[in-house]
Design brief:
Radius of gyration: 16 Å
Largest sheet: 7 strands, mixed
CATH architecture: 3-Layer(aba) Sandwich
Helix content: 25-40%
Strand order of the largest sheet: 2-1-5-4-3-6-7
CATH superfamily: Glutaredoxin
Order of helices and strands: HEEHEHEHEHEEH
Number of helices: 6
CATH class: Alpha Beta
């Protein structure tokens, strides 16, 4: 009985590690996606955004759900501070661009862009897949330096620390550059 428990625990740990965020210090995968800011659709390119400074890239499971709405409000409140530090904020989910056009206005308060990753390519490239529902993104945040290096990654389904943690990393990066 105990050996069966240990085997199950090992399998679950191995399975969970397959969904871990990309490690700090690695090169961020480049991507281009359809995004919305203030209800207007545009093409977001990570490479283009990095030319202007660091990028705070955060993945969230679904627009208009409780935790994702809280997180969007927190990022909206902090966006001006991120901008003053030279950082761009973008959220990514599996939602359709039509849904995100509404979400970008109401929950993101026209402050930052949200992008559609309907086919899951970006969330898979960033190991930000929700293990229990692989069609959805896990709540994972990254800070990416203008060089493309991942400075910070954080995964937690609780929305409470993502803004605070990424802001601290961006501030530290700014103080060193």
């Amino acid at each position: 009985m105990q050996s069966r428990f240990i085997a199950t625990l090992i399998v679950s740990l191995v399975s969970t590690s397959a969904f871990a965020a990309l490690p700090n210090g690695t090169q961020a995968p480049n991507f281009e996606v359809e995004a919305s800011l203030g209800g207007k659709t545009f093409s977001f390119s990570l490479a283009n955004a990095l030319r202007h400074g660091p990028v705070v890239l955060y993945f969230y499971p679904a627009a208009f759900t409780e935790g994702c709405t809280v997180e969007a409000h927190e990022f909206a409140q902090a966006t001006d501070k991120f901008k003053k530090l030279g950082a761009t904020v973008i959220g990514v989910s599996h939602d359709s661009i039509e849904t995100l056009q509404k979400f970008s206005v109401s929950e993101c308060r026209n402050k930052f862009a949200v992008a559609s990753d309907g086919d899951g390519v970006v969330m898979k490239a960033y190991d930000a897949v929700l293990p229990a529902k692989p069609d959805f993104a896990n709540r994972t945040s990254y800070v990416i330096a203008p060089t493309g290096e991942i400075l910070y990654s954080y995964t937690d389904l609780a929305a409470t620390k993502h803004v605070e943690n990424t802001m601290a990393v961006v501030k530290k990066w700014r103080s060193e550059h």
